[in-house]
Amino acid sequence: TNDIFILAIESSCDETSASVIADGKVLNNIVATQSVHEKYGGVVPELASRAHQENLIPVVQEAILTSGISKSQLSAIAFTRGPGLMGSLLVGVSFAKAFAYSLNIPLIEVNHMNAHILAHFIEDPKPNFPFICLTVSGGHTQLVLVKDPLTMEVIGETQDDAVGEAFDKTAKLLGLPYPGGPLIDKYAKLGNPKAFQFPITRMPELNYSFSGIKTAVLYFLRDQLKENPKFIEENLADLCASVQYSLVEMLLIKLKLAVKEYGVKEVAIAGGVSANSGLRDTLTKLAKERGWNLYIPKFEYCTDNAAMIAMAAHFKYLKGEFSSMDVTPLAKMKI
Ligand code: KG4
Ligand code: ZN
C-alpha cells in the first residue's frame, strides 16, 4: 500500500511529546509536561534533559499503542532538530536515530518554528498560500510569509526578548509562578487594560522589541511599592490587563503593517502565546473589520506538541526530504 505512517518526537524545551500521523491525518498527540521547573521560575536546562530522558520512552510507547499501528508499519521517524535547548534536543535526536536505525526506515528532521506554523494543517479550516503567520512563543516572535509548506520567509522578528518571555518575566515581577503567561491572561480578564500605561515600543520595519516592558514594569512597581507595599495584590488584575494590552498592541501594529506591505489577507497565528485570549479576541475583531481570513489553531496545537512535528514531517516525506544518520541538533536554527 501507499500508506505513510510517521512517528514524530518533540523535545526542544520542556514538553516531551510523541505523535503518529497516517497519510497526513494526526492520530494522536501525547504530551508529558515537566513540572520540575515551576519552583525555579523558569526552565532549568539540565533538569529538562533528565525529564525528557525519563519521559520519552513511555510517551513514544503510548503514541504507538493508541495509534493502532505497529512499529513495523512505520514509514519514517521524525524529530525536532532545533531551535531549542541543546540537551533537550539531544535526547530526542538520539532516540529518533536509534529507532529509525533499528527499524531500517528514514529519519526526518523538522524545524520547530516551521512546525508551529504547519500546525495549521492538522485540522480544517486550513489557510491558503501565501499566508502571513505571526509566530509567538517563549523563545521566538516572528512574522513569516508562508509560500508553501516548505518555503517560508521571515519578514520581521524580535531583536531581543520573545513576547512569551516578556509575559513570563513581567509575571515573575508580579510574583506569579512560571510560566506566568497563562496567569497574566487569566487575571487580565478581570482588569482594566487602560488602568496603567506601559510603553509600546516601535521598532523599524517589521521588527519587534519586547525587553523594554519588563524594565518599565520593574521601575513602576518599585516606585509604587514604596508608597504602598500592597500595591501588587490590590491591583493585580489591572496590572495584568495593562501589560497584556501593551504586548498585544505591539504584536498587532506590525501584523497590520505586514498585511499592508505584502497584500496578503490570509493571516494566521501560531506558538504558545497564540493561546492568549487578549490576542485572540483583539485579532478576531481586527480581522472582521479588515476582511482578513484569520486562522487560529486549537489550543492543544498552539503550545509545544509532536503533532505539529508529525505534520511538518508528512510534507517533507512527500518531497523525499530525509536526513542522514549523522545529523546533529541545532540550538539555533533558521526557518
Ligand atoms: O510555543 P511554546 O509552548 O514553547 C516555546 O516554544 O517557547 O510557548 C510557551 C510560551 C510561554 O512563554 C508561555 O507563558 C506562553 O507561551 N503562553 C501564554 C499563554 N499560554 C502560553 N502567554 C500568554 N497568554 C497565554 N494564555
Ligand atoms: Zn514552541
Automatic annotation (TrEMBL):
PROSITE patterns: GLYCOPROTEASE. Its cofactor is Fe(2+). It comes from the Bacteria. It is found in: Cytoplasm. Fe cation binds at residues 112, 116, 304. Binds 1 Fe(2+) ion per subunit. HAMAP family: TsaD. NCBIfam families: gcp_kae1, T6A_TsaD_YgjD. This is tRNA N6-adenosine threonylcarbamoyltransferase. It comes from Algoriphagus aquimarinus. The lineage of its organism: Bacteria, Pseudomonadati, Bacteroidota, Cytophagia, Cytophagales.
